[in-house]
Design a protein that fits this description.
With 172 residues, the protein is an alpha/beta fold. Helices cover 22% and strands 34% of the residues. A six-stranded mixed beta sheet has the order 1-4-11-10-6-8, with no helix packed on it. The protein has a five-stranded mixed beta sheet with strand order 3-2-5-9-7, with no helix packed on it. The N and C termini lie far apart (85 Å).
Amino acid sequence: MTIRKRFRIWSAFLLSWSVPLLLFCPVLLSCASAPAQAKSKYVCDETQPANLCNAANTCGSLSSPCTIDITRSSNSANVRPSIPNAKDNQFFCITAGTTVLWTSSNKNNGFMVSFGTDSPFDPDDPIMGGGEKQVRRKARTPGCYKYDVGAFRSGTVYGMSGGNKSELVILP
């Protein structure tokens, strides 16, 4: 009989603490994850994205063009500027007035780059080219830009790759 009494007392004690604890844990977890949600993954959402530009991520200059290679992987389009040690789809910067050469090193590949309604390049059209057709544009309007890139392979049934959302900064 004393064992049953102790068991009842112990279970009442655990039950009285488990309900507030179960209610408190989700509140604690949501508070801990709130600061992580506030930080954006896009450079263009920063207050001063041009401050993130340096010699290691700036492509070309007024005297030498910036070459941007667009390739197609199995499920995405990859953008790589002509910067030493550049990685696919990294954020990069270009100085206004720089000539940009959009190209693809993949044979039989085509690509399309779209900045939407406010392209920083002259002329202000979507950029369409490929391995056999390089496209020259002049960077003109300073600012931070998000753009969509798609790449496709000629002659394939499912030739269009998944695009990606990339970013670049045009420096004054």
